[in-house]
Amino acid sequence: MPRGERARRRASGFTFVGLLALVLLIGVLLAAAGEVASTAAQRERETQLLWVGHEYRAAIGRYFSHRRAYPQTLQELLGGAPDAPVQVRYLRQLYPDPMTNAVDWVLVPAPRGGIMGVASSSKRSPLKTGRFDDADQGFEAATSYADWTFTFSPGALRGAPGVGTPGAGTGPGTPRVGTPGPGTPPAGTSGQGTPRVGTPMGRPRRP
Q1: Structural domain contains residue 201
Q2: What digits encode the pLDDT tens for the residues 116-163?
């Protein structure tokens, strides 16, 4: 075989190997970028889950402070009937679970009846494993989002954000008479964000 022909084939082989290496490198970079994007999206949903869970916990606490009993359904947190003389809303709306995008919460029953909290129905493992709020310290050992239970116990969360007397205070987590209700989400979100709402728990006021 002429020397020139061998050189051309050798160069062609090097070009083919180079193209294969380039394609492989692009595939690795795309996979890494997809993993980063997926992780970022999961962390955002975690933040939303914490905010929404705190909203439900605070709403149940306000309901209990006002009525001295736990709600029987989540719907009761939205207030009384439209024709009721006094409207008191404990939750702005029934927020969906950010991990499933559905209102399919696992309801945590109270010892004497009613609902004392909610938990996600997602069995996915959390990315966040530390630096939780004081009321969420048990979340550090969670193996799935279903272990993040947002519960209210009388006295256990005294001073926690968002738990207080209906109609008292001016914080966004406090229900007012004749107003749309508590739990206004942060700007630019649709009901999720960072859980920093409400006022300290006060002495229950008789309805």
Answers
A1: no
A2: 999 999 999 999 999 999 999 899 999 999 999 999 999 764 545 556
Query: What integer pLDDT is reported at residue 10 of this predicted model?
Result: 60
In which residue are the tokens 């939303």 written?
A: 48
Q: What would the two tokens of residue 127 be?
A: 């990315």
Note whether residue 51 is domain-resident.
yes
Is the predicted pLDDT of residue 108 greater than 80, yes or no? yes
pTM of the model: 0.65
* Cα–Cα distance for residue pair 134/37, rounded to 1 Å: 30
| Count of structural domains, the chain | 1
C-alpha dist (Å) from residue 164 to 12, 69, 76, 161? 76, 14, 17, 8
- Convert the pLDDT of each residue in 157-196 to its tens digit: 454 555 654 443 333 343 333 333 444 454 444 444 433 3
Does any domain span residue 56? yes
Strands 115-119 and 149-151: antiparallel
Q: Which range marks the domain in which residue 111 is found?
A: 47-151
> Is residue 57 assigned to a domain?
yes
Q: What angle do CA 120, 114, 57 make, to 5 degrees?
A: 45
* DSSP summary character for residue 88: B
